[in-house]
Specification:
Length: 254
């Protein structure tokens, strides 16, 4: 398959024009004309590149952009330099769908809702363009919801953190994958019972607690690693595509 055709398809599925100006969604490296095998992953690590080389991958599709800040030099003596050098030497192209995927209809936030089996899922742009709003199939306590999320997302229950009363009944929920804690007050305008996201810092958790909000942190990785499954679902009928077996959360749990 022509690499440019894959890029064009991804630009359509995850509309590149919708990406934030500060973001770097889209083509990161274009190093060949043809593509026979693709790998989908949340982000690139050096071990991931080694795996891609071993698997004869021609294109890596990531959620987090390969190039996000100004790159001033490329050296074999630093990790990012080695990653770029290996990619170029092995003619492995890279495409990233970051905010273009977060904001897309059928993108990562919608897919998260599908994974947790939320019902009546909607976007309410006038409240927040990233968040999705929906309902659980049946009400459950806040602590039960945390357990449920760990199971549905296949993440260690120990990494799921929350504010609020554990016996509080939850039915209406909202969520934003990745670092969406800044939207918690927006989400509560929709009269929800709990808000789910990742990367919650101490002061944000305290603010939510003081406001009486049920805030659940499933971690950045825990909410977004499913990006790989989403991309596989979108491309599996067009080209051979695999996920990584080496890319894992940078955090370990005792």
């Amino acid at each position: 398959m022509k690499l440019k055709d894959i890029f064009a398809y991804l630009d359509e599925v995850f509309p590149i024009e919708a990406a934030e100006e500060w973001d770097n969604s889209g083509v990161q490296l274009a190093l060949s004309d043809e593509c026979n095998k693709v790998m989908a992953v949340i982000e690139i690590t050096e071990s991931l590149v080694d795996e891609a080389i071993e698997s004869n991958v021609n294109l890596i599709i990531t959620h987090h952009p390969l190039f996000f800040s100004n790159l001033k030099s490329i050296s074999k003596d630093d990790p990012m330099g080695r990653i770029i050098i290996k990619l170029i030497q092995n003619k492995i192209s890279v495409y990233s769908a970051h905010t273009s995927c977060d904001l897309a209809d059928g993108g990562l936030n919608d897919y998260f809702g599908k994974i947790i089996e939320a019902e009546d899922v909607v976007s309410i742009p006038e409240i927040n363009k990233y968040c999705r709003f929906g309902k659980l199939a049946h009400a459950m306590t806040l602590s039960e919801l945390c357990e449920y999320l760990a199971i549905k997302l296949s993440i260690p229950r120990e990494i799921v953190r929350y504010t609020g009363e554990e016996k509080h009944l939850v039915h209406k929920i909202a969520w934003c994958t990745g670092s969406g804690v800044g939207f918690v007050f927006d989400a509560y305008e929709a009269d929800i019972d709990a808000y789910i996201t990742g990367d919650v810092k101490h002061h944000s958790a305290r603010d939510a607690e003081l406001a009486g909000f049920n805030l659940i942190d499933v971690s950045h990785y825990g909410s977004e690693y499913i990006f790989a499954d989403l991309v596989i679902e979108k491309l599996k009928d067009k080209i051979e595509i695999i996920s990584s077996t080496t890319c894992k959360s940078p955090f370990k749990v005792l």
